[in-house]
Amino acid sequence: MKKTTIIALVLSVTILAVWAYGRGATQEAGTYRFVSVERGDVESVVSTTGTLDAVTTVEVGTQVSGRIAEIHVDFNDRVEQGQVIARIDSTLLELAVREAEANLERLEAQLLQAEREYQRSSSLFADQVLAEADLEQAAYELDVARASARSARVDLEKAQQNLAYATISAPISGTVVERGVDVGQTVAASFSSPQLFEIAGDLSHMRILASVDESDIGLIEDGQSVRFTVQAYPEESFTGTVNQVRLASSTEENVVNYTVVVDVGNPDRRLLPGMTATVEFLVESATDILKIANAALRFRPTEEMMAELSEGRSEAPTHTGQEPAEGGEVASRADRPERPTVLWYLAEGELAALPVRTGLSDGQSTAIEEVGDGSGSLEEGLQVIAAIIGSSQNSSSNPFQSQQQGTRSGPPGPGF
Predict the structure, then answer these.
(1) Does residue 269 fall inside a structural domain?
(2) Residues 317, 377: contact at Cβ < 8 Å?
(3) Residues forming a β-bridge with 249
(4) Which pLDDT value is given to residue 279?
(5) pLDDT tens digit string along 162-209?
(6) If DSSP codes are grouped into helix, strand and coil, which group holds residue 252?
(7) Rounded-to-integer distance, Cα 79 and Cα 84, Å
(8) At 120, phi and psi to the nearest 5?
């Protein structure tokens, strides 16, 4: 019994070893990860963030000091231009007006008296009864009285204007987005104008102030289409148009940025001032084209794959290296024709290479078209090798690259 157990154990270990060796050999020989050629759209965009804001925003303050007596609007209220939105206690301001009026009356009386004195002095001087110096003194006092009366009129107008400033009116039509005071609060306008309200203009038209890096600002121009999202509606995309690329720059952490103004329509008023927008400036697009995941373009065949492909052929295609020019010299980059990129796939179980020309890329997929003899091998649904399972090449691929197909060994079946 013991001898039989030992023999069975040895056979089991042998079978496992043979199976593991065969499995490793199979993976090394031909276990690939495939991606599919798809038909769709590819867009080149510049991505950044910005802040939604009203096109026109006015901070409403006061030019006079006093206690807030009345407030007629609140947050989110709609106001019209000229509408009274608050009043400041005007008791002291009214007294200042009355004081200015009394002062003006006094100085006008003095002016009338100075005019009579001058007329009397003129008559006496004509009769040679009054000296010329006395006449000049009367004329001087008349001029001073006139100037004092004008100054009093200005003081009265100033007091009346300050009294008018006690009534706060909306400077524009819009929506109250901020209210900074309450009834009974005292505001002081001695050194600066305190902010009482903030009124945003027509919120059916808004703008985004987006910050664009200097390396991308050359791709932005007026009239360019813009697509953006906000966190409040993550599943919905909104559109806008570039209105202005401001020349003023700002530097943050040694990076130069420029402000781009994007016009945005907001007819349903769902977009609110202050929202953070994730913005994509549409630089270039290609529609209804064949495209492939970038992982397939980065794939490089092993020596065994090249040898397998070269069987029965004079040479295998490649997409690297330099071509000798006439006279045996290496041609310059400008003189050399653009060499195609090679995609690798399995045709009836055999390894095959497909030269393609790459086009626009969005960072994940790239537009491609077939070159060469136009055999028509490039078509939608073609399974292209993106990596070899277990190889160092596979481990070096982009870990964030989305995989469109699962892992398979051997050629793809009819279901692909």
Answers:
(1) yes
(2) no
(3) 258
(4) 96
(5) 999 999 999 999 999 999 999 999 998 876 778 899 999 999 999 999
(6) strand
(7) 9
(8) -65, -40
Length of the chain: 416
Q: What share of the chain is helix, strand, coil (3-state, %, to 5)?
A: 30, 35, 35
Helix crossing, 132-165 with 91-126: angle to 10°?
160
Count how many domains the chain has. 3
| Structure tokens that stand for 212 in this block | 């664009």
Radius of gyration (C-alpha) of the chain in whole angstroms = 43
- Expressed as residue numbers, the domain containing 142 is 90-165
Residue 87 has φ and ψ, to the nearest 5°, of -135, 145
Q: Position 192: which residue type?
A: S
φ and ψ at 113, to 5 degrees? -65, -40
Q: How far apart are CA 125 and CA 112, in angstroms?
A: 20
| Token couple for 384 | 């292209």
Tell me the whole-structure pTM to 2 decimals: 0.65
**Structure-token pair, residue 133:** 């110096």
CA–CA dist 35, 293 (Å, integer): 7
Q: Are residues 185 and 171 in the same domain?
A: yes
For residue 87, which of 66, 118, 59, 113 has the smallest C-alpha distance?
66
What is the C-alpha to C-alpha distance for residues 19 and 233, in angstroms, rounded to an integer? 54
Residues in Cβ contact with 256 at an 8 Å cutoff, skipping those fewer than 6 apart? 213, 214, 249, 250
Q: Tokens representing 310?
A: 């070269």
